Amino acid sequence: MNEILLNKNEDLLLPNNILFLSTNKFTAKAGEMMRYTLHPLGDDAVLVELGKEISKETHQKVQSLTAFLEKYPPEWMIEYIPAYTTVTIFYNPFKAYQLSNGQLPFNFVCSLIKPLIEEMTENNMPEPEIVEIPVCYGGEFGPDLDFVAEHNGITPEEVIEIHSSGSYLVYMIGFAPGFPFIGGMSEQIAAPRRDTPRLKIPERTVGIAGMQTGIYPIETPGGWQLIGRTPVKLFRPTDDSPTLLKAGDQIKFKPISLEEYHHWEETEQ
Amino acid sequence: MINVLKPGLLSSIQDLGRTGYQKFGVISSGAMDPFSHRMANLLAGNEENDPVLEITMMGPILTFEKDTLISICGGDLSPSINGQPVRTWRSVFVKKGSELKFGRCRKGCRAYLAAAGGFAVPDVMNSKSTYLRAGIGGYKGRALKSGDLLETGKPSLQSLKITEYLTKQILDRTFVENDWGIASELIPDTAANPEIRITRGRQFDLFSEASQVQLFKHAFEVTSQSDRMGYRLKGPALSLSEHAEQISEAVNFGSIQVPPDGNPIVLLADRQTTGGYPKIGQVAAVDLPLLAQAKPGDSLSFAEISNEQAQQLLINREMKLRELKQGIFLKTRGGN
């Protein structure tokens, strides 16, 4: 496994500890019982840890557990947050207390989660959705495209070619609504963060930080190298599914012209 | 309808939070002091989750365009109606044309104003809470401004009963408070420099022995870099016994995380959904109101309790709250 740590994060606003994984030697054995540990996270949540390292294998376990919770939401559950190696399940402590006839909510909820995980196999994995994201590279949308090219001793066109030919896995969503933590970018276009973060990065900007690529769904400060922008909204608060991306999705970037960008943006709005 | 003459420092509409969307990275938001929020609603005859106005440090000036049943709970920001002090933690019936004003921050720093029927704002992703950074929810996705007009929803039967109870006593005054209070043991003691009960965080054991001791031995100051997202604390620098990178995972209301500079951050209502800093502690849910009422300059000290104790305390308080709810119900309807 090739694990490289990135990001010495500048402030609260930036995602920390983004790890990147380029290869995956594991294949999940179907039917194998999941190893896990349970931990309290405050008085209304239990964190289920399904692995110790970021890997596709652990990601699949996270995906099967969340698929299960989505399909059969327990009545005491409020919501869940999937991450690289964990799924945190939030519950209503008083409801759990009442349902259990006076047991401590954490103990009660754990006693229900255990059989649930143990019965689960990795066969109920949902098929990953492939999401194509059009990107207008360079120009005013991607002021750092030239820097990324220079840093790697290649041309801006090659950066675009490499960035848009990859297939990327969304490991988790966090930091901002619909902000994907993505694995799978080529080392050939890696670039360090800016020394001084920009105060405002417009929404839908595509950037590179270390060996990580990502898209800013809403305007935020940030230190990433900006290479382009997509006309597609990643955060849609009024839609049933409020974000374009979810954990487990596969992303492909498609280069588009400025003209196409404007046309697309108009039809989006 | 309520007219906003002056907005105050940061007044925003909040309910108990936007749940179900954290998996999409959408933060929970909601009241910083959920207990005061619920009490204010209870006293106005509302559902516990109804949207109320969260008022911070310097309160707004509001005028009532019609007779309204309200309640103000949480911090004591010296509220007055038409120049007369009005009590917090009470049901208050206000005649139309009255002006509600806030003054000095006497105790705590966040007050919750509930109006019968709740503030009528649209649901966004199942919640009426304002998500300030994304500009959605609440009143037009933002904090109040001068000239805003707040509509209230349809009062519940309970609100009407409380109103009926109070109108019998108003005589020629412009407002009246109920003549019974809430047992003082139920009201969190939001004195300055509170002691806050916490449990060990998931990465507590990774911290150096010295840091583990200092967390409970020393006070931490709430710095001016503190907002609805989190409080940055200053005290003895806390550090891991050896460098260890964390993998990002979910955080919760009250999680105490420690970035590399060693100054802990307590995460609050507008926290991000996930974080990658090690968590040294977790504030017990029952003490979140104390934290939410602490203001920059206050110092916090932490006392360790077990997870079992923390949950038991929460259950006990919830039981009392239910008894209180029953009590209010009987009191306002008993006569009929």
UniProtKB/TrEMBL annotation, chain A:
Pfam families: CT_C_D
Keywords: ATP-binding, Hydrolase, Nucleotide-binding
UniProt xrefs under SMART domains: AHS1
Carboxyltransferase domain mapped to chain residues: 36-245
Superkingdom, taxonomy of origin: Bacteria
MF term (GO), any: ATP binding
InterPro entries per UniProt: CT_C_D, Cyclophilin-like_dom_sf, PxpB
Classification via NCBIfam families: 5-oxoprolinase subunit PxpB
Protein name as annotated: Kinase inhibitor
Source organism per UniProt: Cytobacillus oceanisediminis 2691
TrEMBL record, chain B:
Pfam families, per database record: CT_A_B
Domain Carboxyltransferase: 23-320
SUPFAM superfamilies assigned: Cyclophilin-like
Protein's UniProt keywords contain Hydrolase: yes
Keywords assigned: ATP-binding, Hydrolase, Nucleotide-binding
Superkingdom of this protein's organism: Bacteria
PANTHER family documented for this protein: 5-OXOPROLINASE SUBUNIT C (PTHR43309:SF5)
Name under which the protein is recorded: Biotin-dependent carboxyltransferase family protein
Species of origin: Cytobacillus pseudoceanisediminis
